[in-house]
């Protein structure tokens, strides 16, 4: 009897330890995306919020290996704006987290008909964020870029007033246009430093992780998320009605495929799906514009004397060549002996030279 009691007691102890181990495993976060508790708490607030009460898109439903997410956006006509590559992810995150308005446990955005339900691991896979988090990248950039833009600053936070005039102008562009944020803009934030590194050195950096992190950190229940809705203009310009689209494999939903677009009498032209009537209308307008342009060019050619046209072409050509020389001088003064930037500038100058030859061809030799 004693041994039985001891065995049952040992069994109870073992079961309790197993339960505790299972409970600890359940409490392990899905991802190490956020190393500080404040960012994790802010992410937990918004990760289960739906944009609208409609079907949810889960990134886990689409395998990342064969780029199913990219294929869906390509079918939507957003091929030019969304890529699973850098640095276009600035626009992706800038768009889908645009001007979210909290309503209870949901958020509404200007892009209607799109609903997402996130998990940290899927976000890491979609945005190409390492599971170890991105604090290490921010810290490295903070050390390197601060030495470049404010070498005399000894504080952890760099004040905008301590920057050079050129870097102050860059800070104004970053904080108000590229990575908009609310509140005081008198300090250079850690999320601004990768932008300095990108703009000053021309490096290819994965901007998605920085933008996504800045969005999560700047969320508040009163202001929502700070970035503007660029995708709304793109959707309106391309006549895309997002409210009629249903994603995923949920019951009652239809999968967005090529056949579904063809049923809606849509044609795939120039990387987007449009209505057949709209395509014919656009083609008629394009033909009319081309005919008017050809007619105007013919009238101008008949009316203008050739010597006057030749002199105008020479003047315009000289103006463009002087602009190229000024750009080359500015490049030499600003970048010094940086070989990589000089090669890039040479490519730009060659492109501008081709534009000059295209729009302002050299005048024909005089008959005399």
Automatic annotation (TrEMBL):
Matches recorded under Pfam families: Transposase_32 (PF20167)
Biased composition (Acidic residues): 280-292
Disordered: region residues: 1-29, 277-310
Provenance organism: Rubroshorea leprosula
Residue ranges constituting the Putative plant transposon protein domain according to the UniProt record: 75-240
Basic and acidic residues bias (residue ranges): 296-306
The protein's name: Putative plant transposon protein domain-containing protein
Domain of life (superkingdom): Eukaryota
Biased composition (Basic residues): 1-12
């Amino acid at each position: 009897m004693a041994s039985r009691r001891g065995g049952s007691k040992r069994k109870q102890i073992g079961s309790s330890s197993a339960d505790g181990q299972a409970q600890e495993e359940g409490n392990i976060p899905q991802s190490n995306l956020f190393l500080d508790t404040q960012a994790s708490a802010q992410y937990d607030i918004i990760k289960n919020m739906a944009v609208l009460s409609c079907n949810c898109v889960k990134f886990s439903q689409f395998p990342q290996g064969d780029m199913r997410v990219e294929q869906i956006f390509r079918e939507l006509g957003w091929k030019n704006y969304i890529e699973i590559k850098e640095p276009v992810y600035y626009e992706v995150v800038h768009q889908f987290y645009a001007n979210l308005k909290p309503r209870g446990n949901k958020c509404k955005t200007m892009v209607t008909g799109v609903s997402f339900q996130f998990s940290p691991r899927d976000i890491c896979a979609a945005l190409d964020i390492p599971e170890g988090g991105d604090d290490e990248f921010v810290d490295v950039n903070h050390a390197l870029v601060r030495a470049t833009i404010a070498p005399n600053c000894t504080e952890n936070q760099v004040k905008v007033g301590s920057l050079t005039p050129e870097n102050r102008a860059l800070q104004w562009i970053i904080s108000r246009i590229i990575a908009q944020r609310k509140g005081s803009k008198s300090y250079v934030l850690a999320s601004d430093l990768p932008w300095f590194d990108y703009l000053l050195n021309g490096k290819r950096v994965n901007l998605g992780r920085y933008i996504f992190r800045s969005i999560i950190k700047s969320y508040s229940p009163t202001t929502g998320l700070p970035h503007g809705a660029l995708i709304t203009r793109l959707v309106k310009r391309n006549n895309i009605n997002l409210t009629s689209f249903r994603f995923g494999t949920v019951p009652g939903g239809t999968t967005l495929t090529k056949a579904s677009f063809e049923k809606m009498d849509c044609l795939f032209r120039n990387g987007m799906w449009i209505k057949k009537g709209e395509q014919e209308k656009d083609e008629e307008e394009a033909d009319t514009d081309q005919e008017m342009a050809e007619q105007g060019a013919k009238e101008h050619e008949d009316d203008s004397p050739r010597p006057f046209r030749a002199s105008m072409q020479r003047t315009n050509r000289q103006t463009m060549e002087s602009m190229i020389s000024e750009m080359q001088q500015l490049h030499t003064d600003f970048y010094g002996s940086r070989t990589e930037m000089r090669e890039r500038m040479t490519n730009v100058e060659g492109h501008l030279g081709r534009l000059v030859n295209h729009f302002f061809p050299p005048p024909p030799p005089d008959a005399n």
